[in-house]
Specification:
This protein is of the alpha+beta class and 121 residues long. Helix content is 63%, strand content 12%. It has 5 helices and 3 strands.
């Protein structure tokens, strides 16, 4: 995976991603969720536009330079579907980990509170 560009606008990054994917270049936008929560809360003020397959990097650059560029290393429909399926599985796994982490933090805070109450009396 190679970084194409950093954007301070998620909207612009998504627009560029849709354009490249319409040409057959698989794109990933990093820090999307953190950016949506807000930079002040998360410290994330940019999103990254990444080319998933290194072999498509030069094509992606050429597409930005010229709308007439024809992608040489385009992904087949089955490759694109497989990449999308992998992304969904990865997102679901991340959400499960985050939810589990939040439950543990909640339980630790509750335990600390209960210990504080018992020690006070």
């Amino acid at each position: 995976m190679k970084l194409l560009h950093k954007y301070n606008s998620l909207n612009r990054a998504e627009k560029r991603a849709r354009y490249l994917e319409s040409k057959g270049v698989k794109i990933f936008i990093s820090s999307k969720l953190s950016y949506e929560f807000g930079g002040v809360k998360t410290g994330v003020f940019y999103v990254g536009l990444w080319v998933v397959h290194n072999r498509q990097y030069n094509d992606a650059i050429a597409c930005f330079k010229s709308r007439k560029h024809r992608v040489v290393n385009t992904l087949s429909k089955s490759e694109m579907k497989q990449t999308i399926a992998n992304e969904k599985n990865s997102k679901q796994s991340s959400l499960i980990i985050i939810k589990g982490g939040l439950k543990i933090i909640f339980l630790l805070v509750l335990l600390a509170y209960l210990m504080y109450i018992t020690m006070k009396f």
